[in-house]
Amino acid sequence: MANVQVDSTKRDTILSTLSLFFQSGYSAILGLIANLVLTILLSPTIFGIYITVLSMISILNYFSDIGLAASLIQKKIITDEEIKTTFTVQQILIISIILICFLLTPVTRSFYNLPQEGIYLYWALLVSFFLSSLKTIPSVFLERKIQFQKIVLVQIVENTLFYLTVIIAALLGLGLTSFTIAVMVRAVVGLITIYSISFWRPQIGISSRSLRQLLSFGLPFQASSFLALFKDDLIILFLGKAVGFAGVGYIGWAKKWAEVPIRIVMDNISRVIFPLIARFQEDKAKITRLLEKILAYQSALIIPAIVGMIFLMKPLTEVIPRYSKWSMALPLFYIFALSSLIVSFGAPFVNLFNALGKVKITFSLMLFWTLLAWLLTPPATWLAGFTGYPFVHLFISCTYIAAIWQAKKLLTIKIFKPVLPYITSALIMGGAIWLLNSFISFSSAIALFTVVLLGVVFYAASLNIFFRINFIAILKDLKKNT
C-alpha cells in the first residue's frame, strides 16, 4: 500500500513539475511578446506607474491570510473547521484592508502624484485582490494533492487573457488603462475557472482551537513572507518617490529581464518541492538527494541562460525597433543578472526550512536581509540615483550563503560539486559568444537567433567534452527523478 502511495506521489510530482514548466514557458513567451509591445508603445514613466501600483497590491496580499493557507498545505491532515476558519479570517482581513485602501485613495494620489488613469488601475487591483482571495481554498486543495497541472490550467487561461487584453488595448492607444482592463478580465475569468475545476462552497465560521493551531506555523511563515515583501516591494514604493516613475521603470525593466530564468526554472521547482518535502520531512537522506538533484537541474538551465542574456541583451535593445530607450537600464540589468545567479544557489534552502516547519530560521534570515535592504538602499539611492538599489540588491544576494550554512547544519549536502560543471561550461559558452561578437555583427534578429543556437551548442559540447555530461540526458533525467 505504501509503495502505491509513493508511486502515486511520484506521478503527481512529475506531472505537476512538467505542467508548471509548460505554464512558465507558455507564459514567458506571452509575457515576452507583451513586454516587447508594451515597452515599445509605452514610456518608462507609464511602465513605472504600473510597477509601483502593482507593488502596493503585493504588499496588501501579505496581510491577507496571516499564513493560514500555507499552514493548510504544510499540515498532513486538515479538518473542515480549519478550512472554514482560514477562509473566514482571510476574508475579514481582506475586506478590512480594501476598505481602508479605498478611503486612502486621496492620500495615495497626492503622495505619488498619480494621474486619474493610475487611480483607476489602483482600484482595479484592489477589486482583483478580493476576487483572487476567493481562489485560495480551491487552490489549497489542489496543492495538497500535488495537482499543480490543474492550477496551471487556470494560470494559462488567466495569463492568455491578460496578455492578449493588454496588448490589444495598448495597440488601441489606451495607455495605462490597458493594464486596468486586463487586470479585471484576468481576475473574473480566473475565479470562474478555478471553481469549475476545484469547487468548494464557501463557509463562514471561526474555531479558536483550529485558529491557534494554524497560527503556530502560519504567523512565523507569514512574518517571513512579509519581510521578503518589505525588502522588495516596499522598496519599490520608496524608489517611486525617491527616483521617480521613469527611474522605477528602468529598474523594473532590468530586474524583470534578469530574473526571467529563476522565475521560470527555480520558482516552479520550489513550488512543487515545498509540499513534497513536507510529506517526507522525516527522511533526511531522501531530502538530501532531492536537494542535490534540484541544485544540479536548476543550475544546468539557469546558469547558461543568465550568462547568455548578459552577452546578448545589448544587441537585443539595438535590434528591436524603438527599444534603444531602455539602453540606460543595461548596467542595471547586468547587476541584477549577477544577483539572480547568486540567489539561485541559496533560495532552494529557504524553501527547505519552510517545508520542514523550521520557519524561525526563515524568519531570522528574512529579518537580516530586510534590515540590510532598508539600511543600505536610501543612502545608496541618494548617492547614485536609480543605480544605487541594484548594487544593494547584489550585495544582499551575496549574503545568501547564510542560508546554505544553516542548511548544512541540518543535512550533509554537497553544494559546489553538483553545480561546477554547469558554471564552467556556461563560462566557456560566454567566452565563445564574446569571440563571435568580434567577427559577427549582432545587428539583426537572424544573427541573434543564430548566436543563441551556437551558444546552446557550445554549452552542450562543453558539458560533454569536459564532464561527460549529456545535456539531453539531463532533461530526460529531470523527468525521471523529479
Proportion in helices: over 70%
Overall pLDDT metric: 80
How many domains, in number, for the residues?
2
Rg from Cα? 23 Å
Count of distinct strands = 0
* SSE order: HHHHHHHHHHHHHHHHHHHH
Coarse structural class = mainly alpha
Oligomeric state, counting identical vs distinct chains: single chain
Strand content: under 5%
Which regions have little confidence, pLDDT < 50, spanning 5+ residues? none
* Ends apart, CA distance between termini: 21 Å
Overall spatial form: globular
Number of helices: 20
* Largest β sheet strand count, sense and barrel closure: none
Give keywords:
mainly alpha, 2 domains, 0% strand, globular
Account of the protein in words:
This protein has 482 residues and is mostly helical. The protein has two domains: 1-240, no CATH class; 243-481, no CATH class. The chain is 84% helix and 0% strand. It has 20 helices and no strands. It has helices at residues 2-41, 44-61, 68-74, 80-103, 105-112, 116-133, 136-144, 148-171, 177-197, 208-242, 244-258, 260-279, 284-319, 330-355, 359-384, 388-398, 401-410, 416-439, 445-467, 471-481. α6 (116-133) packs parallel to α9. The two termini are 21 Å apart. The model has no long low-confidence stretch (mean pLDDT 80).
Set out the fold topology.
Blueprint: H1 2-41, H2 44-61, H3 68-74, H4 80-103, H5 105-112, H6 116-133, H7 136-144, H8 148-171, H9 177-197, H10 208-242, H11 244-258, H12 260-279, H13 284-319, H14 330-355, H15 359-384, H16 388-398, H17 401-410, H18 416-439, H19 445-467, H20 471-481
Helix pairs in contact: 1-8, 1-12, 2-6, 2-10, 2-11, 3-7, 3-10, 4-6, 4-10, 6-9, 8-9, 10-11, 10-15, 11-14, 12-13, 12-14, 13-14, 13-18, 13-19, 14-15, 14-16, 14-17, 15-16, 18-19
Transmembrane segments: 20-41, 47-73, 85-107, 119-142, 151-173, 235-253, 294-312, 332-353, 365-384, 390-407, 419-440, 446-467
Family: Belongs to the polysaccharide synthase family.
Membrane topology: Multi-pass membrane protein
